[in-house]
Amino acid sequence: MNPTLWSAVRSEWIKFRTVRSTIIGVLTLLVLTIGIGVLISLAIKSHIKHDGGIARIGFDPTATSLGGVLLAQFAVGTLGIIAMSAEYATGSIRTTLSAIPKRLRMLSAKGIVMFTSMLVVSEIAVFVAFEIGQAIYKSTGLATNLSAPGVFRGVAMAGVYLALLALLGVGLGLIMRTTAASIIVYATMLLIVPIIINFLPTNWQDDITKFLPSELGQAMLAPTSPANHFSWGVSTLILVGYVVAVMVIGGVLLQRRDA
User: Fold this and answer.
1) pTM, two decimal places
2) Per-domain residue ranges for the chain?
3) What is the CA radius of gyration of the chain?
């Protein structure tokens, strides 16, 4: 008898929350998102006080208080990768597939657990980072609040961005099957490729950069769309497209390859 999707989800949830890497990953996500965001906000506050009006031009209190997301994206991706690749490393994937013979059901359950868990944790982290950041900026007169145009949406979408990257990590872990290779590919997408693009002609940079996952994330969390970027809605759809593509490829390989 094949377990239902709900049974598979419950099984994956128990597995996910009892693994040590999950606890470490979640704590790292919280520390990076909130801690780095606070440090950036304090540094900017000091800079604004010394430079006065010049530093205030184009200042975005929302995006800067969420600066920790730039590092937290590596934590959630790694967490997603390990959730999948560790099963191949330990051989427990055979046990998992014996308990859930329908492989795509297993993958769906793991994806649901990963996305939902990371969405909840990420939303808590980004909203806390935002509120602390605005408390720091309050004395400068530049603080904003969640009722300002685009701010609530920007903060909420920052959490969605991190949750999507965790799901992207699951897909890469499924395709590559090894943690090290998956992390290298993930880091290349988010860190190395943008550096390489900087060496291209300027007009090429403008056309290519806005498609990069990290730039899509910046457009998603910004209250107003940055120059040479897609709108937050289009950016979200493109990133979802990347995640779906990777998960579909992973699902096809899961069906065709031996465990």
Assistant:
1) 0.94
2) 5-256
3) 20
Q: Return the pLDDT at 259.
A: 67
Q: Hunting for tokens 């090429």 — which residue is that?
A: 204
**CA 259 to chain centroid:** 28
Residues of the chain with pLDDT under 70: 1, 49-58, 259
Q: Which residue has the tokens 């604004």?
A: 48
Full 3-state SS string of the chain = CCCCHHHHHHHHHHHHHHCHHHHHHHHHHHHHHHHHHHHHHHHHHHHHHHHCHHHHCCCCHHHHHCCCHHHHHHHHHHHHHHHHHHHHHHCHHHHHHHHCCCHHHHHHHHHHHHHHHHHHHHHHHHHHHHHHHHHHHHHHCCCCCCCCCCHHHHHHHHHHHHHHHHHHHHHHHHHHCCHHHHHHHHHHHHHHHHHHHCCCCHHHHHHHHCCCHHHHHHHHHCCCCCCCCCCHHHHHHHHHHHHHHHHHHHHHHHHHCCC
Q: Are 239 and 220 in contact (CB under 8 A)?
A: yes
Angle at 145 between CA 140 and CA 146, to 5 degrees: 160
Q: Which of 195, 168, 194, 198 is nearest to 183 (CA)?
A: 168
Q: What pLDDT score does 2 carry?
A: 72
